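[Meeting: bench + compute handoff]

Bench side (C.D.) handed over the final construct sequence. Compute side (W.E.) agreed to return the predicted structure before the next meeting so the bench team could plan truncations. Sequence as handed over:
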Amino acid sequence: MNRLLLLSSLAVAFSFTAKGTSGQEVAAPTLEKAVFAGGCFWCMQPPFDRAPGVVSTLVGYTGGREENPTYRQVSSGETTHRESIEVTFDPTKIPYEKLIEIFWHNISPIQKDGQFRDIGDQYTTAIFYATEAQRISAEKSKEQLAQSGKFNKPIATVILPAGKFWPAEEYHQKYYIKNPTAYGMYRFGSGRNGYLQKTWGTAH
């Protein structure tokens, strides 16, 4: 279901250098990237934005073949992309494993046909790894979740190699800040809040 309709009805790493207090050049922390698909990308941005050690986030589209996808195309299922979020983080302040934990706690990992009332492949969940270390961490975390006994169905989230990430249109970035009322109505109406509260004890 297109979220706008619902509203109306209700590790690639990079580094840089900086001047130290003594005037000498000192190496700044090397930042890394993590990419997740968790259904509605509006809802995935706040929990990562709040996490200490996360430098920035971008919502967008990835996992598909089409170039320069638009929201209209992706949300209507016209592409092979998923709605996703790209997280830039400082691994000395927050490990990749913690980002995976945040991801699990903000989705339904057992839903196969989308997320909550957003149905379609474009809303299915995925972890996109940029390095072998990320792949290993993701596989281990998924296995631990599967063996935790918390769910009575298999974990539906897939783990895939990262590809080109296409940032979404500007009005989708930080939507929860730009349009807090509409965002809150959507989040409640989609069923996400209720599920997270029941499953994880918090609606984030």
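W.E. noted at the follow-up: The first strand starts at residue 17 and ends at 19. C.D. will use this when planning the next construct.
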